[in-house]
Design a protein that fits this description.
Keywords: Membrane, Transmembrane, Transmembrane helix
Domain Inner membrane protein YqiJ N-terminal: 12-104
Radius of gyration: 23 Å
Transmembrane segments: 12-33, 62-80, 92-112
Strand order of the largest sheet: 1-3-4-7-6
Helix content: 40-55%
Domain Inner membrane protein YqiJ OB-fold: 133-195
Shape: elongated
Distance between the termini: 63 Å
Pfam families: YqiJ_N, YqiJ_OB
Amino acid sequence: MFAQLLTPDYAPFAIAFVVMIGIGLIEAIGLGFGHLDLHGGIDADADGGLLGWLGLGRELPILIWLTSLLGCFALVGLAIQQVASAFTGAPLHWGLAVGSAAVVGSMLNTLAANGLARIMPGFETSAITTDELLRRRGTILEGAARRGSPARAKVVDQHGQAHFIMVEPHQDEGSIAQGETVLLVRREGNMFFAVPDRDPLLRSI
């Protein structure tokens, strides 16, 4: 069976399945970034529009939707090839099978995505942008943060979700030790810059 999945007629569906597993691992491991930018949702203004038809009109996180789509595509594709082999003795040409699986898989994913959006309300309301972590406090977890030598920090957002980010001191000559609490004041790309709570400027905040 494994060798069969490597043939051209089955390969697109095997690749889709591997990518789906890869996305799941990225979500599970977090790659050191926690939930940052991984749960971005797409909001469709009208449920009857194209995005709504695709299942993206309910603020379902894009990676959850993509994982569902890949899974539906792979399962439908494998089913099509198995049925074709049972009736004709050979699978369909990969191009024909991919086209059919894309259409049927998209329709199936619409039902799956709408179902997921209903049973996972926490995802609908807790997706945040990276900039929303600014002006929040975090804790340095590993090592000391210095300019040019960031440290890993944990920040909890307004929904109680933990985010793991890389932090450098806001001041060029500053240093923040492991275990210290900091206030995130700005960011550049994926790098956040913070002021330690011991800074006199924060005593009244």
